[in-house]
Amino acid sequence: MAIPIKNSRNSYGLGSIALHWVMALTIIGLYPLGLYIETLDYYDPAYRTIPHWHKSIGLLLASLLIVRIFWRALTVQPAAIEQSRLLKVITHSVHMLLYVLLVIALISGYMISTADGRPIDVFNWFQVPALPAVVENQEDIAGEIHYISTTTLVSLAGLHALAALKHHFINKDQTLTRMLGMHQETRT
Amino acid sequence: MKLKSLVAGIALASTLATGAQAADYVIDTKGAHASINFRVSHLGYSWLEGRFNEFGGSFSYDAAKPAEAKINVDINPASIDSNHAERDKHLRSNEFLDVKNHPSASFESTAFMPNGDGTAVLKGNLTLRGVTKPVELAVTKIGEGDDPWGGYRAGFSATTEFQMKDFGITKNLGPASETVYMELHVEGIRQ
């Protein structure tokens, strides 16, 4: 049975599933790439390519986030999995925090590279123009924020993944399967 | 005619009143008639130029007694500007200027030796990254005189060079890029 594009009250549709996993894999890939950039020497052969990829992928991720926020607003959200009231609140808070951290990470990353007014090249396909700098030595402050927000984001995503596994193996509910498109409601 | 000589008289009187000792000048950083620039070779193929945007200082200079000239300059190393945000971030890091641990830099002159042709050698101590080392600057006097706003100005330019490793910068950018060439332009407003 094909997975519908849109969400239902019980499960995620292909749109949400694809956005979730593409963005999850991108974020997990960008983080070590960012740490690697920190270690690169000026004359390292990768110095010209890795930061360029990191910025390009980051900006594409930002456009996906915009699509995702609209998608989330426009489609119905599957009902929260039944669990204690406290866990429901924590779960919802973590989900919201993941969004907030991602927004901060993307904006701060953009602000490092555009602090001098230069646009960012996205894979030499197009350029994203710079906005005027907000603070003095913006690249330093934005750099700190980028590091803290991305580290927190990836750590929280780890907790999010552990929680999904806990639901799958301990609670034996459809938390993980419905995000994998494996849980199909049987409508009669 | 009468008015002109009166004005001249007042001007002369005020000069006599204040001009007895070597004149003190404040470097005109407010009007940005001064700059501290540097260049470092990029790979040995070209020059990378940058500047320090924030600094201030004063000097004393009397054309009649040039050997008594003195200058003090304080520089904010965090204001380094090579017109590239990521590079500036790197230059402020502990691999280069380490501005977090060494938030100030300065130059204090110890001797001024005129060559008699409008140029001079200025000796002094440069403090950078917490290291103080003597440096010599080749100074050229550009000019001095009244400005259009009722003040009096004097200006100089100077060049010097030093090795990055002498100031504790261990990062080596390659044999062509170990030396920093400085070019300074100062215009002082007489106080």
Structural features, described:
The complex is a heterodimer of chains A (188) and B (191). Chain A has 188 residues and is mainly α. Chain A has one domain. Helices cover 63% and strands 3% of the residues of chain A. Chain A has helices spanning 14-39, 50-74, 85-113, 138-171, 175-179; strands at 120-122, 126-128. Chain A has a two-stranded antiparallel sheet. In chain A, α1 runs antiparallel to α2 (50-74) and α3 runs antiparallel to α4 (138-171). The mean pLDDT of chain A is 91. Chain B is mainly beta and 191 residues long. Chain B is built from two helices and eleven strands, in the order αββββββαβββββ. Chain B is globular and about 45 Å long. Mean pLDDT of chain B is 88; it is low at 9-20.
Brief write-up:
Chain A is mainly alpha-helical and 188 residues long. Chain A has one domain (14-179).
The helix fraction of chain B, in percent, is 10-25%
SSE sequence of chain A, one letter per element? HHHEEHH
Largest interface: A-B, 14 and 10 residues
Question: Care to count the β-strands of chain A?
Answer: 2
Which spans of chain B of ≥5 residues are poorly predicted at pLDDT below 50?
Answer: 9-20
Largest sheet of chain A: 2 strands, antiparallel
Regions of chain A with pLDDT < 50 over 5+ consecutive residues?
A: none
Number of helices of chain B: 2
Order of helices and strands of chain B: HEEEEEEHEEEEE
Report the sheet-strand fraction of chain A: under 5%
CA radius of gyration of chain A: 19 Å
